[in-house]
């Protein structure tokens, strides 16, 4: 698909989720600024070809840069969620490690210019300037790789992984990693084997290709492997039909949700209950967020609940009938009390049951209110 500038302008006219960012002269980049339920409608089930194209144009507005009829840069389109990926669609797909960094790519100033600049999807920024400085000082020949790609009508895409721009995972050293190469005119992504060879040719690090689905592993085997990852974001899957999917590790999703998610309390509690508070505290500290008081308050509340339950167990000294009649607790707390009366280890049982409830979609607000009630309190944990 060869996008036109007027088609991107038409997107702006009907949806205020997108913005035009001036580039040079008449050139402009088209970028989404927020995502709502209807920002990126699925193009592949559109009722007409025209509607399908309009939706595909939206999917391209992630830094797509146009100068009239010329495509100056074409970064990744919107990636499809992994829930839509099936074994049949994934057959023969290449799997590349997804890096936790910032998307960086070069763009010519105009269609006629040979001069180009490093930029993010919104344009030149301190992040892209840091990446450009790294590239200039690196022994790898980034400039020649970019020149060769642009001359061939392609956009090379990189991930800038740096402690100067931390996202969720730690980055021990700065890296500017070649992740993909995309055809400007058609939007086709070059095979990952070609990307790897391009990086090798110019001494530039390329994102590891983990293999092919249906050849090296099945999709279910890949998903199972990703569930065990703790220090990786996930993978990008490129199908033979040139569709992109992302699969993120559950641990990364939790950490991301705990730091940036709208319902961050649920993710934070799940990490704490699972005994993963050290990973939570480390991820937060990299963003200059101190969650030590938050973690301590959660543990303190759980301890108060356990202490109150123990006090009731001690009061009735194993008299289950009197215990049942006098116990002022309901729900999970009542279950915990009877288990404790039988000698169960209370704290692990409380953590496991609360974690199971949150994983099953339990309401965090209601759950914390119950905990405060069970502890004999009315103050919240915030």
Name some characteristics of this structure:
4-stranded antiparallel β-sheet, alpha+beta, D-amino Acid Aminotransferase, Chain A, domain 1, 2 domains, single chain, 382 residues, 5-stranded mixed β-sheet
Q: What would you note in describing this structure?
A:
- A five-stranded mixed beta sheet has the order 5-13-12-6-11. Strands 1-2-3-4 form a four-stranded antiparallel beta sheet, covered by helices on one side. The protein has a four-stranded antiparallel beta sheet with strand order 8-7-9-10.
- The chain folds into two domains: 244 residues, DNA ligase/mRNA capping enzyme (D-amino Acid Aminotransferase, Chain A, domain 1, 2-Layer Sandwich); 121 residues.
- 34% of the residues are buried.
- The chain contains 15 helices and 13 strands.
- It has 382 residues and is an alpha+beta fold.
Strand-residue proportion: 15-25%
**Based on helices, strands and strand pairing, what is the structural class?**
alpha+beta
Domain unit count: 2
Kindly report the spatial arrangement of strands forming the biggest sheet. 5-13-12-6-11
Order of helices and strands: HEEHEEEHEEEHHEEHEHEEHHHHHHHH
Spans where pLDDT lies below 50 across 5 or more residues: 378-382
Q: From the 3D structure, determine the CATH topology of the largest domain.
A: D-amino Acid Aminotransferase, Chain A, domain 1
Could you give the distance between the termini? 49 Å
Mind telling me the CATH class of the largest domain? Answer: Alpha Beta
CATH superfamily of the largest domain: DNA ligase/mRNA capping enzyme
Q: Write down the overall mean pLDDT.
A: 92
Label the CATH architecture of the largest domain: 2-Layer Sandwich
- Tell me the helix content: 40-55%
For the secondary structure, the number of strands is 13
Count of runs of 4 or more consecutive helical residues: 15
Evaluate the radius of gyration.
26 Å
